[in-house]
Design goal:
The protein has 512 residues and is an alpha/beta fold. The chain folds into two domains: 353 residues, 3-Layer(aba) Sandwich (Alkaline Phosphatase, subunit A); 74 residues. The chain contains 15 helices and 18 strands. The protein has a seven-stranded mixed beta sheet, sandwiched between helices. Strands 4, 5, 6, 7 and 8 form a five-stranded antiparallel beta sheet that branches. A hairpin with a 5-residue loop joins strand 4 and strand 5. Helix 4 packs parallel to helix 11. The protein is globular, with a radius of gyration of 24 Å.
Length: 512
């Protein structure tokens, strides 16, 4: 056997292990549907409407085809690492909540005349900063004009330490500072579908199937979700995958090899970290230009866009941000450990629950406007995928209660990458799972009944895809109001993705 043949055999073996995976053909379930009618969604962008950067010559590159294996989520080689009975210890709240925020109104149950309860707003500025509002005593029901509210109660007579509070807490809501538009006045906008991106960090396709069975069934049966079992991460951790997903760009060089023509990073000299992302082709900006009200929240003070010490957004990246909540819990300049303890551990509440409640509020607050959101659950499963088992009920209830509200929506439920830590990760199956984050997509009701688009998406769902394809799909959905004479959409960077709404005429390049 020649050296060339040996080398090629080795490369084929490596690719078979490292390239993805999986699993489970889309189930054919009897969907529970609603008798609603919504406006028609515009057809997908034609490929000639998009002008990507010029692509390299792929002649001489090996492997223009690969077989995608289907993994068993309960593979016998990994069952010893699975803990379906993994649940937090029983929890009883250890704090008496003296302030309450309900339907936008803040009240206190404190009746002690020798003490005073007060609140102030925490306004978002950017990824690192917040702005404090003025303190105001809660002498009657108050209506804070902000999303994040800090509350404290003081003993009026204990002035020796400068009114040290005996109670500290924080509330979150979605405050709307405009007037709701009646449907007849907003007929054109209301036809636009909502777009919700819900990320659970470090969860593979197999892990989602085995740890969140009720949520999985709810999405497949009642939302007619389409699963993409062959989503492949583009890089090691959250940040590069986020850049691919939300900016369509790569922040790393890819060496030329027998399986790649080689690529240069879209960001020279680490400019993705040294420079702000606000004026880049950030997908949130495109949805905003298309008339969407936007929101972003995650449960990490840093976050995927500015970790470990990158600029991120120096302005607000979306209309609503929950970031002050996280900054107050663990931000470098603003952290208050007591508040962090009170809103979570002492209240028997996990950080992912705060995120999903905020998303729930946002959905309710803007029934008359198209919405685009990114909710990134970082803490839940990042270090231990077994933590997902106990969260299944919470995610199931969120989707069950919002079936009607999300009926005219694109809902992307996905991971940024698979499991990266623990014993399972060090198995052969775990190595593949790391490369294979999960993705389920639900279409708006009108598109589910469109045979052309529905069949196109289902066909694309069986292909190898990456986060670049997600960016292309978001671009396809977001139709900006153009003030220019050109109808062409110019996108820079690798942008080698293909919209999942697009038929096979769209191009896709994968050697990176």
């Amino acid at each position: 056997m020649s050296n060339y043949t040996v080398i090629k055999s080795v490369i084929i073996s490596l690719i078979a292990v490292s390239l993805l995976v999986m699993y489970l053909d889309n189930a054919s379930l009897n969907p529970f549907v609603f008798d609603y009618t919504f406006g028609d969604f515009p057809p997908p962008l034609e490929y000639d409407e998009i002008i990507p950067d010029e692509k390299p010559d792929y002649k001489g590159v090996f492997f223009d085809h690969c077989e995608l294996p289907h993994l068993n989520p309960w593979d016998p080689t990994i069952t010893r690492f699975l803990r379906p009975d993994n649940k937090p210890a029983p929890c009883k709240p250890t704090i008496k909540q003296l302030t309450k925020l309900e339907n936008g109104t803040l009240t206190t149950s404190n009746t002690d005349k020798n003490s005073t309860c007060a609140y102030r707003c925490l306004y978002p500025v950017n990824d690192y900063d917040l702005k404090y509002g003025n303190w105001a005593n809660i002498t009657k029901p108050m209506v804070p004009d902000c999303d994040i509210i800090e509350t404290k109660c003081f003993d009026n007579h204990n002035t020796t330490k400068g009114y040290v509070p005996f109670y500290e807490f924080m509330h979150a809501q979605v405050y709307r500072n405009d007037t709701k538009i009646e449907p007849e006045e907003n007929e054109e906008k209301i036809k636009l579908p909502d777009v919700y991106v819900i990320i659970i960090d470090a969860v593979s396709h197999s892990s989602f199937v085995r740890t969140l069975p009720r949520t999985y069934h709810e999405l497949m049966a009642n939302y007619e979700a389409i699963q993409f079992p062959h989503l492949n991460k583009v890089a090691l951790n959250s940040r590069p995958n986020a850049l691919a997903m939300f900016l369509g760009k790569s922040n790393r060089n890819i060496e030329k090899s027998p399986i790649s023509v080689g690529y240069t990073s879209d960001f020279q000299n680490n400019s993705d970290c040294r420079r702000p992302l606000d004026d880049d082709q950030w997908i949130g900006k495109r949805f905003k230009a298309a008339g969407y009200t936007t929101m972003m929240n995650d449960d990490w003070a840093l976050g995927p866009m500015n970790w470990p010490s990158c600029k991120g957004f120096v302005r607000m990246g979306t209309d609503h941000m929950m970031k002050p909540f996280q900054l107050k819990i663990e931000g470098r300049k603003y952290a208050n450990g007591q508040i962090g303890h009170n809103v979570h551990s002492a209240s028997c509440k996990e950080s992912f629950e705060s995120l999903m409640n905020y998303l729930d509020d946002f959905i309710t607050a803007y029934p008359d406007k198209p919405k685009f959101t990114i909710t990134w659950n970082v803490n839940l499963a990042h270090s231990n995928n077994n933590n997902l088992y106990h969260a299944d009920g919470s995610f199931y209830e969120f989707f069950r209660k919002n079936e009607e509200k999300l009926n005219n929506s694109f809902v992307f439920v996905l991971g940024d990458h698979g499991i990266r830590f623990g014993g399972l990760r060090h198995t052969a199956v775990g190595n593949i799972e790391d490369n294979n984050p999960f993705l389920l997509l639900t279409l708006p009701w009108s598109l589910r009944r469109d045979p052309q688009i529905s069949s196109t998406v289902r066909e694309n769902a069986h292909q190898l895809i990456t986060h670049y394809d997600l960016y292309a799909t978001f671009v396809d959905i977001a139709r900006p109001k153009s003030d220019t004479n050109s109808s062409k959409l110019i996108l820079h960077g690798l942008f080698s993705g293909k919209s999942s709404l697009c038929a096979v005429v769209c191009s896709r390049f994968y050697d990176h």
